[in-house]
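> example.struct
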């Protein structure tokens, strides 16, 4: 059971790190005009959603449920406000 929790914790940390990196790179690319910033932010938020789901599996509390819900709502709002709702 400890190996399972350790693996999920590593996946959660990877998702947080990857999401942060994707958002950072997306912002840099947007500043230099290569791409729109919104695409990087939305993809990074997808990684954050995955991280909060892993956290929910590791610690099934109401706080974790609320954090997951808020992250999903933030991702949806970012998608709609940036006009990316037609992307897959």
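> example.seq
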């Amino acid at each position: 059971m400890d190996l399972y929790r350790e693996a999920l914790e590593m996946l959660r940390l990877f998702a947080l790190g990857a999401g942060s990196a994707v958002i950072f790179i997306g912002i840099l690319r947007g500043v230099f005009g290569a791409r729109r910033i919104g695409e990087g932010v939305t993809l990074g938020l997808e990684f954050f959603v995955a991280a909060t789901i892993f956290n929910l599996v590791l610690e099934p509390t109401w706080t974790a449920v609320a954090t997951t819900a808020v992250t999903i709502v933030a991702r949806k709002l970012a998608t709609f406000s940036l006009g990316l709702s037609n992307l897959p």
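> remarks
The longest helix spans residues 2-31.
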